[in-house]
Write the structure tokens for this entry.
Amino acid sequence: MVDAQRMILDPAIRDWVLIPILFVMVLVGILRHHITMLITGAPKTPQLKAIRESKALLRGMRLRTIGNNIPQHAFSTRKAYLAEAFEKGKYLKNPDANKEGTTPMNPMSDPDMMEGMMEGMKKQIANMVPQMVIMGWINFFFQGFVVIKLPFPLTPRFKQMLQSGVDTRDMDVTWVSSLSWYLLNLFGLGSVFSLILGDNNSAGVDMTAMSSMPGMMPGMMPGMGQPGQPQDFNKLFLAEKENVMITPHVWDLEDIEERLLKKYGKQPSIKKVVPPPSPVNNKEPTMRDRVKKAAQKNNNKRR
């Protein structure tokens, strides 16, 4: 069966299809990185109130997760303080926006929001245009080519992914078509770009920009806002307040001495509490005490 499916590829396919696709993908990734750096410019410094707003929410989450490392009184104090601050909107960037009678601000009128939307659109264009051009180039010149054979076996589930554009039912799944070779390079050249351009590069596929496109990735993470819609931190603070209030507290250092002794095989010694000795009355008896004592003796003799 193995001999019946044995195929020999022309070396010209390696020289004129396999290597050119890889070379063009690397060059386009480097060009995409420099174009993205030119059109986006320097990142804008975030506002102090916006940082304070996000860090306050993170503070409540940390209190819930690692609050058992502090004593009960310290946990209760922080719990009450954060609950009151979240309820009153103390950490909100714009506390007056959530009061009754005020109309919500239009996101399109916020310059920071508009600038963020424009930056996202620029990144989407820089990602999508080169991909469409390269895919059209491969489909026009190299459609139907089988370029490489993987050195390890795979299940038939990978056939549709590795043999895109080649409609063969009996060909082994380890053979890779030209279009699938492009897709493998598209998602697999991240380490090469990191080696050439550094870690923070824009040469690879920007998954954040792709996830922000409607219809591109339907399985978005819950809690992520739609593009162009700001997060409502007032609702997030109220939800975090409820989570903080129902969080129980068990101090991790309770009876730590006894647990440490048991860990190393030492039984803790139980100390007996000895009551203090009663004070001895060394005062001399008064004349009244002597008279009472003599009267008691006489009464006893009469009896």
